[in-house]
Amino acid sequence: MYLQFRDDVEALLTSALDTLDLPTDDLGVEDPPEGVDAVLASSAAFRLAGEVGAPPPKVAADLADAIDASESELVAAAAAQGPYVNFAPSDAYYEGTAEAAQREDFGRLEPTGEEVVVEHTSANPTGPVHVGRARNPIVGDAVARILAFAGNDVDRHYYVNDAGRQMAVFTWAYETFEEDDLPDPERDKADYDLVRYYRIGNEFLEEGDPDEVEEAEDEIQAIMQGLESGDEETYERVQEVVDTVLGGMRETLDRLPAEFDEFVKETRFLRDGSADDVVSRLKELDEAVYEEDAWQLDLEEFGIEKNFVFLRSDGTTLYATRDLAHHEWKFDEYDRAVTVLGEDHKLQARQMNATLELLGNDTDDLRQVIYSYVNLPEGKMSTRAGTGIDLDDLLDEAIDRAREEVETRLDDRIRDDDLTDEDVERIAEQVGIGAVRYDIVSKQPTKAITFEWDRALDFEAQSAPYVQYVHARCCGILEEAGIDPASTAPVAEGFDASLLETEAERELLAVVARFPAVIEEAAEDLEPHVVATYTREIADTFNTFYRECPVLADDVDDDLRDARLALVAASKHAVGNALQVLGVAAPRSM
Length: 590
Known about the structure:
Oligomer: single chain
Low-confidence stretches: 379-387
Strand content: 5-15%
Helix content: 40-55%
Number of helices: 21
Number of strands: 14
Radius of gyration: 29 Å
Distance between the termini: 31 Å
Largest sheet: 5 strands, parallel
């Protein structure tokens, strides 16, 4: 209803401005300040004051007088308030919202017909996923979910670095060292098993006998050259390591969950010749120079001081060169491409965009989401010996802490259903992993995060458990009324939405109605935290409704009961779908 209401407001404004013979290029439609009894407002009077030769409040009053609200079923009235024109909703707006939000797919936008690829995570397959990089799969997966919910056909890609020096070192080390040379793995998992070879190999290259290191470097270089030339045996040797490690990493990512439709390997663009084609075209550019034993691009015209290196003196390409071929493949296959990158890749992103433009590509079809890193959590994990904290450690501790929190609350539960041990474990996983994911995705990507357990798992504060509990509470109310929360049928046929007349009810309806617009905004700006902010708003608003508006009490008549049950179902769908697009579980009970 909100999106239709906005369309109606824009049409009413345009018509009134035409009547007043005023320009309609900037309608100034925006959300009104808190406390204003309106769904939308227009600030057009500010822009028009100079042209009309009257102060903004006078222009706003004249504009409001020229608006015929009867032309819209959803707009009850347009009224001037100072320099603004406020648009109040009709009963039909509230009724339509309550009906629309009872649909299981509430908030999902109409298909756009666009195919979008979202590339995220793409961590080098050299070992377990580190917690410092956890923001990439969490933000990336949320961006992909939001874009899909906004009506796009979305593919989720992981770009696998299987052709660089790191993988050559890894392959050499795996083939060189014996199991007896290695410490025990930290977990019984493929990535933890093989990372031992990578670590001991790097240690050898840094500290080993110079002659032996030189011999090893020759072998590593031969592997790189073999990949570059398309040697099948070399490719298979490297893929044994890559696929094994990647399999273990995928198990960790599945826990978040972070979903992928395709793992695109960079060797693909060596083997099909597209990387060589890129190199040939780059060499022909006026910006191409050969300096310091490498082919480079001078990108000063783009305001980039550091040259873009695309070919080594030995004829091997770089990751960035192969990524250019990768991006051109994306442009051929998709309407739009989104890449999620850490803040340390800002320069590379600028170089990539500039170089793609020089190659004749339209970079308007490419957008990057840049995120800052997650500072390590305090507590037992930070004291562990080793190279750092793995994402598996964080998720394990999240589940353990959530289990403790759930168990301490068992005696205080309002619902009289008995939770089995399996129920407690399920809820602990939903709450624990949801807390980690929500805490990370709820912040603006460019802001650094210091993870704090007490905040992330606080059932009373604005955290994942706080929002999840609202969904569980909605389910509990429906179950108590004899309604299956998982049913896709409306909970009340022909309910009278006009009975939802208290401030708490109207405010909750207003917040529920905005959900499709929140999805629209988040998809346009590629900002999942916008949805997280919305979930906290709807949770707060629902809790006020819950305190002030009994649903199943004996003194609530049947018609009002049905209307309030419809509002509970609408709230369940809004908050549940919002959590869904953030990748956070919406528990039925807690």
